[in-house]
């Protein structure tokens, strides 16, 4: 497993445990006590570390290479998944996967931003940076959801929309704006969860939901801390300062009323126990959807608009 | 005469014998002796020598010359020609040599577009500096500086009145105010502008000029993307025209929200319009960008704007459009049976979808 710099003491203990287990394989050594003691120590350290992660550390955790991705969530949580491809205008964009499936039995349209987990899959999914065709596919699937009265579940995990010549030529800005507009006008419920990194316009294009959830150690920001540091501090090395200043953690955004729910992650972050992290997100999504499914479309749209109009208007000092 | 030559002649002229850039400007040019040559010309090598050495001496001799405003001239970023400021203003900041469109502040933008007798719409107060953001400098200080410099409380100015006789609300962004960036004040101002347009049955014309979201407000700026879209949608659903005039530069979260959702998109000649900044793209793809990339004409070619217009023809174009796109009463969608349940806003309105189908 990839070890983040601040996790090194924990990783050392864990490797010690592994070593002991390995040694015990060679002969009957009384190691159970020792392993138990070390494991307790690991847990205590993880609790200490993860209960007070700095924003900069959260950025690292949110981007952890072993963190579960959209494909993992879909594989684990969505049954009868049937992927749907293409924007019917230009092409298919694997940075944004979509399809039909069931979440805890409820049929829905799933949209997931996918970054990939190794070099090959990262290239295939363009590092999770969608192009206009990705956002147009999302719109197409949202309209499909509308036609069949299915709720939309969006999994957000992207550094941002793809910045490139061809994306601009095909109207990246229009595609994002239209996607936001589609989210806001959707006559069916839409629930989004930021599972890793919510990067700027490319994220909010799909995260404009009736309910917005965030995993405990996910981040959601108007600009990457690195980008912010290089513009405002004129030094991309100041990313840690920028991360603190931007207020990009789930805890900050929940306090500001910009997101609705924080989904707890297992001890030591989602990358240490992906299965339980994904199960928690699945349960939280279902819970968020339930009251929305009972609302008529008129009330739903009016409430969604009212929610966004009210944001930032009160509750701030 | 080519541009460089013309410039040189003028520099020499300014030093000894103020000779005019063009014969017809002679009298005007000569009205200003060399020591009053504006500071902006100092970017030219000879001029900087002149400014640093000669001008202080002249100033000392002529005492009081300091009080004379030194911004009488502007250099055209397009062709490098020196332009007499007052004349430039008469041309709405368009270079008369090359037609380059320079930024136009929102006060003059409203005056350019709206008929005489328009009024400013007062914009709601918002929470200032929600994150208490600080880099090298506190955001609160940056904001205060910009406010002091412009005399406005944020980057958006909204006016209401008529445009060529048609009721219109115009919302213009000021690029000189923290890059025209969209934070809570701008988002709230757009909501107010839209509400004003709906209340007075006016068209809403937005004139963005912005670097995008105001990052010092963090996620509070990003959520202005959906908020500004809700504003635009309310205007559209009320059966009123929503027109976007893209000006130089419009990028980032502004382009990716209300600025790309107009019923009609006009772009000022040569304006830079895009999502990602050219530098960001270049550093991502590491190749040279195509000529004219992200310019108004490029967007026209790629189907993202309806027309590229000059500032001189902008008002007439808008007046013509407003004459053709007459406001329609809010109505129930005609095709509701085909589209199933239709969303309704608070105003007995139609869904954008149904509205666009009904229009075609």
Layout of helices and strands, plus pairs?
The complex is a heterodimer of chains A (317) and B (360).
Chain A: H1 8-26, H2 32-51, H3 55-62, H4 70-77, E1 78-84, E2 96-103, E3 106-113, H5 119-124, H6 132-147, E4 152-158, H7 165-169, H8 172-185, E5 190-199, H9 200-207, E6 211-215, E7 219-221, H10 225-233, H11 239-246, H12 250-256, E8 261-263, H13 274-293, H14 297-310
Parallel strand pairs in A: 3-4, 4-5, 5-6, 5-7, 6-8
Antiparallel strand pairs in A: 1-2, 2-3
Helix pairs in contact in A: 1-2, 3-11, 4-13, 6-8, 8-9, 10-11
Chain B: H1 3-15, H2 26-30, H3 45-62, E1 73-75, E2 82-84, H4 85-90, H5 106-113, E3 119-120, H6 139-150, E4 156-163, E5 166-173, H7 184-199, E6 203-207, H8 219-222, H9 224-237, E7 242-246, H10 252-255, E8 264-268, H11 278-285, H12 296-301, E9 307-309, H13 311-324, H14 336-339, H15 352-359
Parallel strand pairs in B: 5-6, 6-7, 7-8, 8-9
Antiparallel strand pairs in B: 1-2, 3-4, 4-5
Helix pairs in contact in B: 7-9
